Every structure is written in C-alpha cells, then in structure tokens.
UniProtKB/TrEMBL annotation:
Domain Inosine/uridine-preferring nucleoside hydrolase: 6-313
Record-given protein name: Inosine/uridine-preferring nucleoside hydrolase domain-containing protein
Family, per entry: Belongs to the IUNH family.
Domain of life according to the entry: Eukaryota
Signal peptide feature range: none
Pfam families documented for this protein: IU_nuc_hydro
Higher taxonomy: Eukaryota, Metazoa, Chordata, Craniata, Vertebrata
InterPro entries according to UniProt: Inosine/uridine_hydrolase_dom, IUN_hydrolase, Ribo_hydro-like
Gene Ontology molecular function: hydrolase activity, hydrolyzing N-glycosyl compounds
Length: 327
C-alpha cells in the first residue's frame, strides 16, 4: 500500500511538536511539507521550532514554509505566550540558529499548499494544528483547493461551549474566527474535527506522561526539556484550569488529530453533522456550534470526534518519541 501523503499546517508549540513527531514516526505517512502559521508563537518562532523538531528526529529533508503572521481580519495580534512560553517551546532552548531563515523555503506556505494539492490531487491529507488562516487564504487564491484535498483533519473548536482562552472558545478558533468560519463553510472535502473536549475527555495519566518523556531517545529527551518548566504540563497548574471541567490527566491536544490521520481506528465514535463558527457574540466569538437538528440547512457535514481508543493513542505517542531510530 502506498504511503499517505500529508501536509502539516502548524503553529508549533509543544503539543504540535509532539504531533509532528508522531507523523514522522508513522511508517504509513509521507510528510510532503510543514507549513507555518502564527498562534502559539510568532510565525518566525514557529519556523524555528519546526526546524528544531525535524533536526531532533533527523528529518531535515522535509521542506518548511513560512505562512501567515496574523489573522485574516484584525490587527495588533500578539502571541499567546501564557501557555507554551514566548517561543512556543517552553523558553528553555538557548541555542538559537542564526541561519534559520536560509533553511526555510522561499515559497509562501499558502502557495506551497496549493501547488502540492494540485500536484497530488485527491491524495493529500492536510492536518491543521493551529489557527486556520493559511487554509482560508488558500481557498481565496484557489477556490478549488478543498476539492483537491483527499481529507482534512483539524484540531480546534469545541462541542459544548467550554473555552480554554475565552469563556466559550477554543484557542485555535479564537485566534482567527473568520478563517475558521471560512474553512468550515467552504471546505467540502471529508473533514474531521478534533475538539478541545474530545482531547480532554480522552486524557492519559500523568504517570503515562512520565514514562513517555523518560524514554532514552533524543526525541524523548527533547520533549522532557521543553515541558520541564511549562505550566501547561504541570499537574498542579492544571487543577485550576482544565481539571475544573474534566478532571486530572495529561493531554497532548494536537496529537489526537494526528493520530486520527495516522490510524483512523483511534477514533471509536464521532458525530456527523453540519457546524458553524460564531463570529458576533460578545462572549461566544470563535465558538463552534454543532447543528445536530439540521437547522442551518447546510449542504455538507463534518465528523466531530467524540470517543478515542486511548490505548492505541498512547501507543502512537510512545512510539513517536523513539526517534531517531537506533541503528
């Protein structure tokens, strides 16, 4: 069987790094490109973070493209440094690469997406792990872009109005609600949503996390370093954050979307229905609405994941940090 061709669109924070490592470890995936978008950090930091991850896994041959530096609409955007640190990787890595710009492709990320989807029409799986700005721009430049994709996996949005950066909205959608709206209205390719609640309700234990990052491989040592001072990976900090809604557990958000792409059997149950992103609400802007009664009269639906095979997911995570493979 031929490998699944994948483009990863990311705002590379710590959980994005974990998801990318999962893709690199998957024997059935061929990563065509990594495209960068603002979000967990500035797009310049995101590019550098991707280069670090590829270097740690000894996969520097994968091309990296710089994309959108801010949302589709609005100004004065600043990175959400409260979560994964100012650089997106926990602010613990001191060895900056002064020549990183020379290692980034000259082509813009959106143009690269369109080119690759056109070259491999209906064969590319696009995994979107950050704000959806690059995807929204792609359909504006090429209205047939979604039709050229084989499938789309999105980590973002929510099912129940529980938010993690605002009262009602999840981070990726809150960072660029207009782009999320455009993508979920206009992308008619098979689309799979990994929501915030799906990730949190299918958490792993903190004991699993300790075992995960204490493996004797470069990728595991890297992950242990970048999570070492990050409150988002602290059991104590989470007691007043995520645990209020979902109870204790270790959650690698973006990895759930990647796992669904790597192995569809990690998703045990999903809800198929139309969805829409709220743009106007004073408290609910960026919130995802599931239209299970078909009130919106939309012509297409998406699959919203609801139950995960946590054991399979855990195995994929564990394997992802055994990189590079010992010879």
């Amino acid at each position: 069987m031929a490998n699944k061709l994948v483009i990863i669109d990311t705002d590379c924070g710590i959980d994005d790094a974990q998801a990318i490592m999962m893709a690199l470890a998957a024997p059935n995936l061929e990563v065509l490109a990594v495209t960068c978008v603002f979000g967990n950090a500035t797009v310049e930091n995101v590019c550098q973070n991707i280069l670090r991850v590829l270097s740690v896994c000894d996969r520097q041959g994968i091309p990296v493209f710089q994309g959108s530096a801010g949302p589709l609409v609005g100004v004065n955007w600043s990175p959400f440094s409260d979560h994964f640190g100012g650089d997106g990787l926990g602010d613990v890595l001191e060895d900056k690469d002064p020549q990183w710009k020379e290692k980034i492709q000259q082509e813009h990320a959106v143009n690269a997406m369109i080119r690759l989807a056109s070259k491999y029409e209906n064969q590319v799986s696009l995994v979107a792990l950050g704000p959806l700005t690059n995807l929204a721009l792609a359909i504006r430049l090429d209205p047939r872009f979604p039709q050229k994709l084989g499938e789309l996996f999105i980590m973002g949005g929510n099912m129940e109005g529980k938010g993690n950066v605002t009262v009602c909205a999840e981070f990726n959608f809150a960072m660029d609600p207009e782009s999320a709206y455009v993508v979920l209205e206009e992308f008619i390719c098979p689309t799979y949503l990994t929501t915030w609640e799906y990730c949190c309700r299918n958490a792993l234990t903190w004991e699993f996390f300790e075992e995960l990052v204490n493996q004797d491989f470069p990728a595991a040592r890297f992950m242990k370093a970048v999570t070492s001072k990050c409150w988002a990976y602290s059991k104590e900090a989470m007691k007043n954050k995520r645990d209020v809604y979902f109870g204790p557990g270790f959650v690698s958000y973006d990895s759930y979307a990647m796992a669904a792409c790597v192995d569809g059997s990690t998703v045990l149950e999903s809800i198929e229905c139309p969805v829409r992103v709220e743009l106007q609400g004073s408290m609910s802007r960026g919130m995802l609405v599931l239209d299970r009664t078909k009130s919106l009269k939309k012509s297409h639906a998406v699959r919203v994941m609801s139950k995960c095979n946590v054991k399979k997911f855990g195995r994929l995570l564990m394997e992802s940090l055994k990189q590079p493979w010992r010879k």
